Q: What sequence folds into this?
């Protein structure tokens, strides 16, 4: 999208200001549908840094995920999702969810809520 969706930016701003990670969204980006919970950027960076820190091979990259001085940009330019899955066929990848950073300007469609499949 060439113009960021103002409502989506407002939702991301609210997540940042309230430090909430309970809002689930599903977004459509080029080549993928991704579903997960929005997280404040500082929490997202912290969780990614923790994962990298626990890896002998990736530990040096953890320092790159220190929050920048002055905090997150205002208005937000990216969504930060945790417990996120790329929807593929009748399942999500990874099954347990992952950490995704998505440029708001790349989102062509979105919905509130975490999509999941059922066999019923």
A:
């Amino acid at each position: 999208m060439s113009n960021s969706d103002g409502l989506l930016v407002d939702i991301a701003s609210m997540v940042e200001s309230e430090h909430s990670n309970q809002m689930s969204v599903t977004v459509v980006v080029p080549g993928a549908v991704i579903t997960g919970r929005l997280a404040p950027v500082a929490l997202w960076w912290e969780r990614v840094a923790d994962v990298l820190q626990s890896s002998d091979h990736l530990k040096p990259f953890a320092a790159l995920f220190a929050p920048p001085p002055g905090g997150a940009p205002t208005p937000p330019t990216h969504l930060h999702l945790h417990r996120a899955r790329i929807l593929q066929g009748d399942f999500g990848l990874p099954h347990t969810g992952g950490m995704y950073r998505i440029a708001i300007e790349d989102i062509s469609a979105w919905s509130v809520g975490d999509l999941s499949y059922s066999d019923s």
